Amino acid sequence: MRMYDIIKKKRDGGELSTEEIAFFIQGVTDGSIPDYQISALCMAIYFKGMSVRETCDLTFAVRDSGDKVDFSSIRGIRVDKHSTGGVGDKTSLVVAPIVASLGVKVAKMSGRGLGHTGGTVDKLEAIEGFRTTLSDADFIRQVNDIGLAIVGQSRQFAPADKKLYALRDVTATVDSMPLIAASIMGKKLAADDDCIVLDVKTGSGSFMKTVDESRALARLMVDIGKNAGKKMKALITNMDRPLGHAIGNSLEVIEAVETLCGRGPEDLTEVCLTLAAHMLSLAGMGTPDEAMALAKRAISDGSALAKLKECVAAQGGDVRLIEDTKNFKKAKYSRDVRSTQSGYIAHADTEAYGLASLALGAGRNTAEDDIDFSAGILLKKKTGDYVEAGETLATLYTDNEALFEGAEARLRAATRMQSGRPEEEPLVYDIVE
Ligand code: URA
Q1: What separation in Å is there between the alpha carbon of 114 and the centre of ligand 1?
Q2: 177, 183, 189, 209: which to mutate for ligand 1, most atoms within 8 A of CB?
Q3: Contact residues for 216 (Cβ-Cβ < 8 A; gap 6+)
Q4: Distance between CA atoms of 91 and 94, rounded to whole angstroms?
């Protein structure tokens, strides 16, 4: 088989066979196919697309390119959720303890921040002492004991994706539906869960900018998961504005704890309860409405918060931070960004908000960068809110005063005002079964 023929076939709109896709991913993994041929095929896929069968083959080959985990010794149903990435998205910190407190097992392997989007592992590391690496035996023991463990991906999961993603990133081929689906699901299927709920974000803070594109991606990923024998559902949720008010690691943990105490922002609470309800329902805990009632009760009776504390303690984190979030280290400096005009916030470019938080030190520009866990943004006003001239739009936090200028400029440029109230947008657009 020759890579040249595979590229030519896809370039001319042909359908690749299972063997051709396996040959390609094998060569990506073992380094025998040069970067220029990998990139050329990615570009051909970008323009010509892939059938569902081809995308499934690509996903399974990516999944099989590295380690897999065996969770068969975990007792009970294992359920996970996966977000396609957003800004202020701390849902895992809320949803995982809710679901685990109701007896469904959550063995979660999360990622770090990517570009403008945050990552659960970085947020958890804002809790002093929290270990995001556990041995397989400790991880499984903890899930069996308390129903919940959250770690980073320390294994060689889907190494083909790592290589492909790095090349897509520099050849303008990230936003191809089959390539995104194979990348996300290839990694997700390497973990051993029974049920998966996907949170497919849509809007300016996500990879998919329109609801129709997001729905198509969700449909494709649900079909791939079902083909692999998983129980699947996908929610299409709004990422045209940050979720909640907090962007940045410790600020987001604090907001997640507030949400578990029943005092969270309305939008974050609604998205978390909806995700939890569908996870519980897939795991056999009744209809989504019945499961929603259980999820609400887990917040109001304090059992979800107690589960988060149990997980933090089990992984070596300082529980006093969760008991009283005032104990989190504060940023050295804060600055209020005030509106120069009166009016409604018509639109906020969510990706730019994520980049503003990154510019304050809350994320990494290179893999080696250290994170300032206390850095970030607290939004005082969001899309649809009325603002008087001089009122605070947001407060910025950082340990490095010199970073305010750039972050404030980004935030201002990303916020569009108008005189009339903008139309309300739904938080959950659709559910793909
Ligand atoms: N997230 C991933 O893991 N892969 C993509 O291609 C896009 C988002």
Answers
A1: 9
A2: 183
A3: 177
A4: 5
Query: What is the third-level CATH fold of 329-418?
Result: Aldehyde Oxidoreductase; domain 3 (3.90.1170)
Query: What phi and psi values does residue 360 have, to the nearest 5 degrees?
Result: -85, -5
Work out whether the CA dihedral 305, 309, 312, 318 comes out positive or negative. positive
**Out of 3.40.1030.10, 3.40.630.10, 1.10.3470.10, 3.40.50.11780, which CATH number does the structure's domain 79-155+190-323 have?**
3.40.1030.10
pLDDT (tens place) for every residue of the chain, 433 residues total: 999 999 999 999 999 999 999 999 999 999 999 999 999 999 999 999 999 999 999 999 999 999 888 888 999 999 999 998 889 999 999 999 999 999 999 999 888 877 777 789 999 999 999 999 999 899 999 999 999 999 987 777 889 998 998 899 888 898 899 999 999 999 999 888 999 999 999 998 888 889 999 999 999 999 999 999 999 999 999 999 999 999 999 999 999 999 999 999 999 999 999 999 999 999 999 999 999 999 999 999 999 999 999 999 999 999 999 999 999 999 999 999 999 999 999 999 999 999 999 999 998 877 677 899 999 999 999 999 999 999 999 999 999 999 999 999 999 999 999 999 999 999 999 999 8
Q: Is 248 in the pocket of ligand 1 (CB under 6 A)?
A: no
Distance (Å) of CA 363 to CA 126, 161, 246, 336, 359? 12, 22, 14, 20, 8
Nearest C-alpha neighbor of 117 from the set 174, 179, 56: 174
Active site residues: 82, 161, 168, 183, 187
Q: How far is the CA of 323 from the centre of ligand 1 (A)?
A: 35
- pTM across the whole model: 0.93
Domain ranges across the chain: 79-155+190-323, 329-418
